[in-house]
Amino acid sequence: MSESLKQELAHYLTAAGLSQVSVIASLTQGLSNRNYYVRGVHASKGSESEWVLRLNSWASTQICDRRSEVAAWRDASEAGFAPNIVYISPEKDFYLSQFLAQNDNRSWNELNSANSSHPISNTEQSWPKAEQLLLQLLNGLKELPIPKNVITVEQQWQIYYSRLSQMQQQLLFQRSSSSSSSAAWLHQFELLLAQDNAISEMLSLHERCLIKNQFSHRDLNPFNILLVQDRLNCIDFEYACSSHPLCDLASVISSHSLSSKQRQWLIESYLSNQANLNHHAQDAIPAAVDLYWVFAVCWALQMAFDSMTLDGKLNADTDKIKQAESYLVCASQYQTLIGSCS
């Protein structure tokens, strides 16, 4: 065990009620929060067990509601679709939750991919029956209690647009001291704005097929899904809310490497048992995928901006600049996946 890591995290471990810690290791880093595997004793178990300590990033906290996140996480956990959360810091800046080991040392994130709304025909099945497991997860999540925080896809776009516009103005105001990163940020935002008419059509198609909102995780990429005992669990409920029923389906088919047959089966099976959508839903699937990538661009630009700036000025920290550049690379890649760009 790394003693330096144990010392660095000592405050969090003590506050979370962990004792007799024998193992600490960094888990695969996400694009925002920091996660650590910990083996130790917690009062909720009474004996040595495995845990995940998650330190929430400041940047992601700016764009999510931590109270809603915790509420959604607990609802999913009670239904058997998420690990138990056993400690939440008073400021909600770090959590302790149950560690779930995946089956046969094979991670669901092997299915990670990036698909546009007009995918190339694919006959290869990277994970046979993955579509059946995903359908079980999607159907389970849609039956969870509807979160109190309601964010429609139209509202989400307006939230992103408003915040990004403010960021744009700040970067333009600082043009005299602008960096290559800020120039790249402005370019990516201009590309996104050029899709305004297409985005309006996407939103219209969503509205046309909607009957009512439901529980929506909104970030069901393979890194947020765990295969545990032949059942999928999900983590990271930062963006969970009451929203459009196509949001989670779009997340899955946009981010998973599925064959064309698996993808089509999943779409048809999900829609056949979906009381919250009408008969126009099938026609809205391409728009749902495109909007998933539009929102991904917005997220990446927000994260890049928060890394680039400090107290209203451009950040001079080398590590933060590199982090901002990585988010901008993501934004550029996501732009290419929006169907109307091709």
Structural class comes to alpha+beta
Give a short account of the largest sheet. Answer: 5 strands, antiparallel
Number of strands: 11
**What do the pLDDT scores average to?**
93
Q: Ranges with pLDDT <50 over ≥5 residues?
A: none
Portion in beta strands: 5-15%
Strand order of the largest sheet: 1-2-3-5-4
Q: Portion of residues in helices?
A: 40-55%
Query: SSE string, helix = H, strand = E?
Result: HHEEEHHEEHHHHEEEEHHHEEH
Q: What value does the Rg take, in angstroms?
A: 20 Å
- N-to-C span: 49 Å
The helix tally amounts to 12
**What is the 3D shape?**
globular
Write a brief structural summary.
The chain has 342 residues and is an alpha+beta fold. The protein has helices at residues 3-8, 10-15, 58-61, 66-78, 130-141, 153-173, 180-193, 196-209, 246-255, 260-272, 281-308, 318-337, and strands at residues 19-26, 34-41, 48-55, 85-88, 94-98, 214-216, 225-228, 231-234, 241-243, 309-310, 313-314. The protein has 12 helices and 11 strands.
